[in-house]
Design brief:
Blueprint lengths: L8 E11 L2 E5 L10 E4 L3 E8 L5 E5 L4 E2 L5 E2 L1 E4 L3 E8 L5 E6 L2 H5 L3 E7 L2
Parallel strand pairs: 1-4, 3-11
Antiparallel strand pairs: 1-2, 4-9, 5-8, 5-10, 6-7, 6-9, 10-11
Length: 120
């Protein structure tokens, strides 16, 4: 469970794509064409992970854990089709990290995003 504290920033991670044509994206574009998620060290973020597809996606964030509303800490979240799941993240591990679908064939088709730390 994360300690209780105010939310400093909010962001949306939108999972998209389809099987025909075979293309998977985060925030409207495949990896390398999408904008990185920029976070500030020590901020508490509320991330809304929105799955706009008809498939479940196990989303994994490297270098961090996050908390579900029930307090459960995870580094991978199964996001059901056509749903939104909110998670709380403490940005306490500066660097550049990958956020991606754990279905490797979705990652290779573009369902990945870089999370990187920036200064205030």
């Amino acid at each position: 469970m994360l300690p209780t504290r105010p939310i400093d920033a909010r962001a949306t991670i939108e999972l998209g794509g389809q099987a025909n044509p075979y293309r998977w994206v985060i925030n409207g574009a495949p990896f390398g064409q999408n904008q990185p998620l920029e976070v500030v060290d020590n901020d508490r973020l509320l991330l809304e992970v929105v799955n706009t597809t008809t498939r479940a996606h196990p989303v994994h964030l490297h270098g961090h854990t996050f908390a579900l509303d029930n307090g459960l800490r995870k580094d991978t979240l199964l996001v059901p089709p056509s749903s939104t799941t909110a998670v709380h993240l403490d940005a306490t591990n500066p660097g550049t990290w990958a956020l991606h679908c754990q279905n490797e064939y979705h990652t290779k088709a573009g369902m990945m995003l870089t999370m990187r730390y920036k200064g205030r």
